[in-house]
Design brief:
The complex is a heterodimer.
Chain A: H1 7-11, H2 13-30, H3 34-59, E1 65-68, E2 79-82, H4 84-111, H5 117-136, H6 140-159, H7 167-197, H8 202-209, H9 216-232, H10 241-248, H11 251-276, H12 282-309, H13 313-333, H14 337-368, H15 379-382, H16 384-398, H17 404-418, H18 422-448, H19 462-480, H20 483-497, E3 506-509
Parallel strand pairs in A: 1-3
Antiparallel strand pairs in A: 1-2
Helix pairs in contact in A: 2-3, 2-5, 3-4, 3-5, 4-5, 4-11, 4-14, 4-19, 4-20, 5-6, 5-11, 6-7, 6-11, 7-9, 7-10, 9-11, 10-11, 10-13, 11-13, 11-14, 12-13, 12-18, 13-14, 13-18, 14-16, 14-17, 14-19, 14-20, 16-18, 16-19, 17-18, 17-19
Chain B: H1 2-9, H2 12-22, H3 30-49, E1 53-60, E2 63-70, H4 72-91, H5 98-116, H6 120-139, H7 144-175, H8 193-205, H9 213-218, H10 224-232, H11 234-245, H12 251-269, H13 273-294, H14 297-328, H15 344-357, H16 364-378, H17 382-408, H18 422-440, H19 442-448, H20 460-482, H21 499-542, H22 554-573
Antiparallel strand pairs in B: 1-2
Helix pairs in contact in B: 2-3, 2-5, 3-4, 3-5, 4-5, 4-10, 4-14, 4-18, 5-6, 5-11, 6-7, 7-8, 8-11, 10-14, 11-13, 11-14, 12-13, 12-17, 13-14, 13-16, 13-17, 14-15, 14-16, 14-18, 15-17, 15-18, 16-17, 16-18, 17-20, 18-19
Classes of the chains: A mainly alpha, B mainly alpha.
């Protein structure tokens, strides 16, 4: 993918991918003009997306880019470090943002009071900036900073749903408390690491940690980081904040968060597990086997079964997300390249699929004002395009061949077989069958039940349909043509497992004199 | 796509499809019937003028499709199919039902297409085409029985197509070729499963013994005109396929010999004259299969010639019995008799057909059947030869004598129907003329055969031997009639091996179904109880109010967080591994 950028931009692409949305946030707020706020946010998202594509194209061959912020050389200076793994995450986040924003422009009309619209765009941009920053930075403490940037704005975004449903406030409050505790755990973990090594640069940390396997402070730090981020990614028993937050947030926010926020958290854990700490550490293997693996399996089943009983479609999708996170963690816990690439490819495919589904539900909410299944009877005929997008997303969620979901599950099962863990493969298939149940429930309501006589629902406006269908078609496209996603994931997984991140990097912006 | 269409447009099938498409647009009446008459003439003209070779090729997904493979073997079958389509259309001039007219066109068209197909894929397409088009000729009778029969027929015909495509797929996997050519290779022991399946598919349509029931079941059930059409194509298409793909496969000789023999006995005791003819059709196919099995130039000539003649005289016999059925409403021997008074022309044509099928000298059967008989004798199959001679005598008895005798003579049924309609008489007259013409001038037929013919049917030895056979058979028939030994024509349904699937299998299946349903319902009750209990439990835990799904106070979640952190810390610090 020879993506050409002017040299001046190309050199600074890692920094610009974060800086552009960061600048867009206050601008959106300051001018107080909704159209302007939307325009600049959208432009920033698209710009970030272009930079992300450029970065991914440069690191697809397995190389690593290093960008020294302000020319200050690491480990003292802050470094942005890009390899295939975080380039993929950057691409997911920026692509979803660029697709969701046009949707948000229409959907927030009915969900958020007009005076809050510019605030919405500003928070959205901050959240976006935070997620991009978490993914791109090579500095451990910088991760925490960006994490807080995204988290704080997320709390606000969720709370904006209160216009429609006051329960959004308590959801946001829960999320705030728990998220803060999670972030605190994370920063405690960082503190413990810093105490021992005296550095916060990831590549530097990786070097200094070798041989320190028996150090208890470092081990405790690892536990704090995994549990802290575990909360952010809604690992099974720590998932309780997620359903309410996704249910009561405005539709566009649900779609954006579902597709990106947990993914970024997973990326952080991967980064700390494999690039900072190492898979060679015995305690890390134990954690994966005794904590992550069983909870991943439980998530796959328990969350899916709960999803079957939900009558709120957004809540159902939220529980389904928890189950999907189970799949991703299962891939990690396999500790082989195939399993890890399954995690990464599912990161991408699930973002596309869940994004499409949340957007489609958002379109229904826009027209009918409700995300409750009983209120959706017969919408298959009233809103054919929206409903068809739900069908596609649902099929991909189940993992029907020729959809994106199939590709991830295929790779995941291949990973299980590589470990000779065929019972795990059976469990993957069995839990997919539960997905059939909850997806079918939706399809039954949409297509097989008659619409109530007084239903006035009509097809959603194009402003909502186009973003929805972009993601719906993408979830078919990446099911049919999985070369790109699978190869990038594989490169990323290999780099993670073999510690390629800490190795030689192409320094694209470092001031010669200060090196 | 365009390549495919281009290739398709030079085949005769194209015209049949075009005709079938045009038919509903054309106003009702003679114009429609005229289309069904003209298309076969066009087809025959195309085939007659086609230069030998392979053309109309296209590539479909990497497979080489050949729609026109013109050589002498395909030409003679293509010509006789066109001729048969023409005669059947003439015979059916009075039919106003567009469904039958379209079905006839498509049926004849796809059969001709199959004959010229040079690859197995297009053969398969045409193969299924004949099955689907022909079933409408049975359904057109519009009785409940005809509907059921049609369904049985369709299942078996489509089934043969499924077997065929499975065989093609396996054969392609094994050999990488889909060419429709000689598949015999090094003999049956070298065949892969695909070739066996292809042979099985051919065998089903060719009504091999035990695979034959669909024929006697369905042909008599079709409409008066439909049966005439049906008798010409399906089975002879299969014979052509066998001659193309499996010449010289020795066990086919024995299969053929059995085919010539067993229908005789069923034909002798059968009451429905059209069913008698269906059995005799099966017996005639046996001769052709023997010819394929022997596999010499002479025997393959015999097969082609016999198929040619057989289509004509079998159509003639079906036409005459059909005319009787058309006029009297029945084709049962026990209800007919004495019709020569009012249907003399039909009677004469019927006798011409009977003489042809019995292979009287100067009739068409004589010049073709003797090719096969002599080929069998020349190639040292004395037992087979004897069986064929016996079968020839049987043919005389059940088709040559029984059909005209019981329909037009025998005891007077008191029926005085009108003579057959004029267009039927013309169709029968033309067919009868062709039968006699070929019998008198066999060289013209021989010139069309796939290989050079150096054969003189009219030698004293041949003629005498055949006359001996025929006279003795007549004599035997006369004796049996005189002394009352000939099986009476009785109402009733003779049970063939189709009893297995019409009575026995349904009974077994019915029993199993009941057994399974009782066991299942009991199990389902038990399982339902457990399931409901399980569901309730599941809903208690996972349902909206369940423990797992409840919205819990923040403190509880923090507790979980603490527990998980404790567990992780413990694992990390305790050095488990």
């Amino acid at each position: 993918m020879p993506l050409l950028l002017p040299e001046a931009l190309a050199d600074h692409a890692p920094m610009l991918a974060v800086l552009v949305p960061l600048l867009a946030a206050p601008l959106a707020m300051l001018f107080g003009n909704r159209a302007f706020a939307y325009g600049i946010s959208f432009a920033a998202s698209v710009a970030s997306f272009i930079f992300s594509m450029f970065l991914l194209a440069r690191v697809m061959d397995g190389s690593v880019l290093s960008y020294h912020l302000g020319g200050w050389a690491p480990p003292l200076g802050i470094e942005y470090r890009v390899d295939a793994a975080n380039a993929l995450v950057l691409l997911i986040v920026s692509a979803i943002s660029a697709v969701v924003l046009p949707f948000a422009r229409t959907s927030i009309e009915t969900e958020i009071a007009e005076r809050h619209h510019t605030l919405f765009y500003a928070c959205y941009m901050l959240c976006f900036t935070g997620l991009m920053g978490v993914a791109i930075t090579g500095d451990a403490f910088n991760v925490f900073v960006f994490l807080e940037v995204s988290s704080l704005s997320t709390y606000v975004l969720v709370a904006l749903g209160a216009e429609k449903d006051r329960r959004a406030l308590s959801a946001a409050y829960d999320y705030l408390i728990l998220g803060t505790i999670g972030a605190t755990f994370f920063v405690i973990g960082l503190g413990l690491i810093y105490m021992t090594t005296g550095t916060l640069n990831m590549a530097d940390l990786a070097q200094r940690l070798t041989g320190l396997e028996s150090n208890r402070t470092l081990r405790s730090g690892f536990a704090f980081i995994v549990v802290g981020m575990g909360l952010k990614m809604a690992i099974y028993p720590l998932h309780r904040w997620l359903p309410s937050a996704y249910t009561y947030a405005p539709s566009a926010v649900s779609a954006f968060l579902a597709a990106t926020a947990t993914k970024v958290a997973i990326y952080v854990v991967l980064r700390f597990m494999f690039s900072v700490y190492s898979a060679k550490f015995g305690f890390e293997r134990d954690t994966l086997q005794l904590i992550i693996f069983p909870f991943a399996i439980i998530a796959m089943f328990a969350a899916s079964i709960v999803a079957c009983y939900q009558i709120n479609l957004k809540r159902m999708l939220a529980y389904s997300s928890i189950a999907q996170i189970g799949y991703m963690l299962l891939g990690v816990s396999m500790l082989n390249v195939t399993g890890l690439s399954a995690t990464l490819v599912h990161l991408f495919n699930h973002a596309v699929t869940k994004g499409a589904l949340f957007l489609a539900v958002g379109a229904i909410v826009y027209r009918t004002g409700s995300a409750l299944l009983p209120h959706m009877a017969g919408l298959g005929r009233k809103m054919p395009w929206t409903s068809a997008a739900i069908v596609i997303g649902g099929l991909s969620l189940i993992g029907i061949p020729s959809t994106a979901g199939f590709v991830s599950k295929w790779v995941l099962i291949a990973g299980a077989f590589e470990r000779d863990a065929w019972p795990v493969a059976v469990l993957i298939v069995a839990s997919s069958l539960i997905a059939v149940v909850y997806v079918w429930r939706v399809l039954e309501v949409l297509y097989l039940q008659p619409a109530p006589a007084n239903s006035t629902a009509t097809e959603a406006p194009l402003g909502l349909l186009i973003p929805t269908w972009i993601l719906a078609l993408a979830s078919i496209w990446f099911g049919l043509d999985a070369d790109l996603t699978v190869s990038v994931s594989r490169t990323a997984a290999e780099a993670l497992l073999n510690g390629g991140f800490g190795g030689d990097a192409a320094i694209i912006m470092g001031v010669e004199g200060r090196k | 796509m365009f390549e495919m269409l281009n290739a398709f447009s030079v085949t005769p099938v194209f015209w049949f499809i075009l005709g079938a498409l045009a038919l509903p647009i054309v106003p009702k009446g003679p114009l429609r019937a005229a289309i069904t008459l003209v298309i076969p003439i066009v087809s025959a003209w195309i085939i007659w003028n086609a230069t030998p070779g392979v053309y109309a090729t296209a590539s479909l997904g990497g497979l080489d499709i050949t729609l026109m493979r013109v050589d002498k073997l395909s030409t003679i079958f293509g010509l006789i199919f066109s001729l048969a389509a023409f005669l059947a259309a003439l015979y059916a001039w009075h039919v106003k039902d567009p469904v039958q007219q379209i079905a006839t066109l498509l049926y004849a068209g796809t059969a001709i297409g199959a004959v010229f197909a040079g690859d197995l894929i297009s053969l398969f397409v045409y193969w299924e085409g004949t099955a689907i088009a022909s079933v409408f000729l049975i359904w057109a009778r519009k009785t409940e029985g005809a509907y059921q029969t049609g369904m049985r027929y369709l299942v078996i015909q489509i089934g043969s197509g499924v077997v065929l495509i499975a065989g093609i797929a396996l054969h392609y996997q094994a050999s990488g070729s889909i060419a429709f050519d000689r598949l015999t290779g090094e003999g049956p022991q070298s065949w892969n499963i695909g070739i066996w399946l292809i042979l099985l598919a051919f065998g089903i349509k060719c009504a091999f013994p035990l695979l034959h029931n669909w024929l006697q079941d369905s042909y008599p059930a079709a409409t008066v005109t439909g049966t005439v059409t049906l008798s010409a194509f399906t089975t002879k298409m299969a014979v052509y396929c066998l001659a193309r793909a499996f010449p010289g496969t020795e066990f086919l000789i024995y299969v053929g010999a059995v085919m010539t023999l067993f229908p005789i006995f069923f034909a002798e005791i059968e009451n429905d004259l059209r069913r008698v003819l269906a059995y005799s059709l099966n017996n005639q196919l046996g001769f052709m299969v023997v010819g394929v099995g022997v596999g010499t130039e002479m025997s393959l000539n015999g097969t082609a010639a016999h198929a040619f003649c057989h289509i004509l005289y079998k159509a003639l016999l079906f036409m005459s019995v059909g005319a009787v059925l058309y006029r009297t409403g029945t084709s049962k021997a026990s209800e007919l008799g004495g019709l020569y008074r009012t249907m003399p022309w039909t009677m004469i044509f019927c006798i011409v057909g009977a003489a042809s099928i019995s292979a009287f000298p100067l009739f068409s059967g004589f010049v073709s059947k003797s090719l096969i008989l002599d080929a069998a004798a020349d190639n040292k199959y004395p037992i087979v030869w004897a069986a064929l001679v016996f079968a020839s005598a049987g043919v005389l008895s059940h088709s040559g004598i029984k059909i005209p005798y019981f329909a037009f003579f025998a005891h007077d049924s008191g029926k005085r129907p009108k003579e057959a309609p004029r267009h039927m008489l013309i169709a029968m007259g033309l067919t009868a003329f062709a039968c006699i013409f070929i019998g008198v001038f066999p060289e013209l037929l021989y010139a069309l055969l796939p290989y050079e013919v150096e054969y003189q049917p009219y030698t004293w030895a041949h003629v005498l031997a055949q006359l001996q056979l025929l006279v003795f058979a007549l004599f035997a028939f006369a004796l049996l009639m005189r002394y009352g030994f000939f099986p009476d024509e009785k109402r009733g349904i003779n049970v063939d091996t189709d009893w297995v699937y019409r009575k026995f299998a349904p009974a077994v299946v019915g029993f199993c179904t009941r057994l399974v349903s009782v066991v299942w319902s009991e199990m389902a009750r038990g399982a339902g109880f457990l399931l409901r209990a399980g569901q309730t439990k599941l809903a208690q835990i996972y349902g909206p109010e369940g423990r797992v799904a409840q919205v819990q106070p923040t403190g509880t979640m923090v507790l979980w967080l603490a527990i998980l952190l404790g567990a992780t810390l413990a694992i990390n610090l305790l050095d488990i591994s």
